[in-house]
Specification:
Largest sheet: 7 strands, mixed
Distance between the termini: 35 Å
Strand order of the largest sheet: 7-6-15-16-17-14-18
Number of helices: 16
Structural class: alpha/beta
Strand content: 15-25%
Helix content: 25-40%
Length: 472
Amino acid sequence: MVKKVIIIGAGPAGLSAAYTLSKNDINVEIFEASPHVGGMSRSFDLWGQRVDLGPHRFFSKEPKINNFFDEIIKEDYTLVNRLTRIYYKKRFFDYPLKLLNVLGNLSIATIFSILFYYGKQRLFPIKNPETFEKWVTNRFGEKLYTIFFKYYTEKLWGIPCSRIDADWAAQRIKGLSLFEAVISALKSNKGNKHKTLVDQFAYPKNGTGTLYEKAQDFVIGKGGIVHMQTPIKKIITENNICKGVITTDGIEHYADYVISSMPLTSLIKGIDTTPIAVLEASKKLYFRNTILVYLEINKENLFEDNWIYVHSPEVQHGRITNFRNWCSSINKGKTSTILCMEFWAFDTDKIWEADDAYLNDLAIKELKTLNLIDSNEIVENYKIVRVPKCYPVYEIGYREHLDIIENYLTNIDKLIPIGRYGAFKYNNQDHSILMGILAAENIINGTNVDLWKINTDTEYQEDGEVKDVLVQ
């Protein structure tokens, strides 16, 4: 009988696992390295308002995820109408595509060029495209790839698209094609099936992080323990069986199972018996960091988008979130607007080490470049949040190294890696929640669902109707 489970990390994956285990009267002890719960999906108070770490939304057809949300949030959420646009060459493109908007923003020559290269690719497809560049070009044609994929993707990952594995496109773009996008545009996007075309989402009234704060409260109420600012130094194993963890203060903690959402590369280093070949494989995997620049601007209506994807190469940031346009409850009666601008970097990039004042000046300059603010708008406050190891980089060859690690960890009983960091997989928070729930159910029911396969299927979980999701 399972009496206790240790969980490393209090993000979406860790807390969904903890919640599920606690519901089934299994004792849980969580170790979180930071002072906060929610991981990259946390919320916090800022200048009298409430903000998240960038844009995070809930929209899934998966019952386990919806039940998790419903049980915790109950009626304390709203459905937000999604409005997102793509900024490219000083023009804004509606996203999902709207035919008249696309035609109005592109020259006739560009439109014909898109169709020409798309037709050419249909006639002469690339067999077994191995890179992101080839995969997307194969699907959309070279011209559309350059306009709507290349620059944003290279900002995010910090390497050329020719070095990014096709897995990234296969997981995130799935079955969407130019033909389907045009049909969707002609139908005014009614009946869209793909995750990138969903136009409404659920949002807790006090921010995304509310879900995880309440999950933590539930776990504690069931007798669970949550240690904040308590990193893990070592994983205790005996005869290929995980027995517990050692925290950085040297204290040993034992349990029947350990669920880990700490970065996979750090997990491997924390196991003393890890073979050299596995350690070498882990060194080939790396993450991308995020710099979030929050600006409070003394204007209520800057623009109507929830967030904007910035594909334009003349600025460094890649996405802007406007928290004024999510739900009024997080604005708390204030009339100023809080924007969050995202810059991405590696540890060795100069911008990662740049001081806060420089990043503030850069963000304001780039907002003016996009004409989103002018000289009349006053930036009243700014705050910089640096988030390390946000995105697992899918460089060509990563899968070979990851397979070595997966095969090794699969043979360590009672140790379960989950989540974006823990499984080195670009999960949405919905995917991470599902991973956590399934990990807990494997323990509770003695099942063996392969968690490594979450988010590798071709059918995405967000293709349901909004009326069927989170509204019972």
